[in-house]
Amino acid sequence: MRVPKAFNDEYQTFLRETGLDNPDPQALLMELASLSMEVYLKEIAWLSEFIGKIERAKKAAA
């Protein structure tokens, strides 16, 4: 999944704050989920909400 320009700053801030570096939020979500839900629960929740926000924006634009 590519992050739309309108959401890029928000995603880059998240990456800086967490020290993570995957440019694909869906791939990062899967990576974190496979590692440990307990350690990355906050990040998993944020990514899930962020991906949902992107999907809602795409539907609204269509």
List the helices and strands and how they pair.
Elements: H1 5-18, H2 25-35, H3 41-61
Helix pairs in contact: 2-3
Please characterize this protein's 3D structure.
This protein is an all-alpha fold and 62 residues long. It is 74% helix and 0% strand. The protein contains three helices and no strands. It has helices spanning 5-18, 25-35, 41-61. Helix 2 runs antiparallel to helix 3 (41-61). The radius of gyration is 12 Å and the shape is globular. The model has no long low-confidence stretch (mean pLDDT 91).
Main β sheet profile: none
How much of the polypeptide forms β-strand, as a percent range?
under 5%
Number of helices: 3
Roughly how much helix do the residues carry, as a percent range? over 70%
Overall mean pLDDT stands at 91
Number of strands: 0
Radius of gyration: 12 Å
- Shape, principal axes of CA atoms: globular
Low-confidence stretches: none
Distance between the termini: 17 Å
SSE series? HHH
Label the structural class: mainly alpha
In short:
The protein has 62 residues and is mainly α. The chain is 74% helix and 0% strand.
Quick tags:
62 residues; mainly alpha
